[in-house]
Write a structure and sequence with these properties.
With 107 residues, the chain is an alpha/beta fold. It has two helices and nine strands, in the order E-H-E-E-E-E-H-E-E-E-E. A four-stranded mixed sheet has the order 3-2-5-4. The protein has a three-stranded mixed sheet with strand order 1-6-7. A two-stranded antiparallel sheet has the order 8-9. It is globular, with a radius of gyration of 14 Å.
């Protein structure tokens, strides 16, 4: 089981952590949402809980709660900047369907 960051994503997380002056890494998970079932939740983590799973990519920790792991296992997180638009992108091999607007997915 794993969740990985591309080098671009790891650099972006590192920049955010440095700007805040604190943090353990990137917290990544899911919540029930939208017409397809789940949406990704991305935040900076200040602590690691006992039931969290911790993966490391390019020197940055990715922290996933136990309940989300089955939905995001195998996901690669990338960061893309195109013109004025920038965002994290998720390449999740478990996704079977997405909603039309792209905000939610089903596994």
């Amino acid at each position: 089981m794993s969740v990985t960051l591309t080098e671009n994503a790891a650099n972006r997380v590192r920049e955010h952590l440095a700007a805040r002056g604190q943090g353990q890494g990137l917290r990544f998970g899911v919540r029930k949402s939208g017409c397809s079932g789940y949406a990704y939740v991305v935040d900076l983590a200040d602590e690691i809980n006992a039931d969290d799973h911790v993966f490391e990519s390019h020197g940055v920790k990715v922290i996933v709660d136990d309940g989300s792991l089955t939905h995001v296992d195998g996901t690669e997180i990338d960061f893309r900047k195109e013109g004025l638009s920038e965002s994290f992108q998720f390449h999740n091999p478990r996704v079977q369907d997405t909603c039309g607007c792209g905000e939610s997915f089903n596994v």
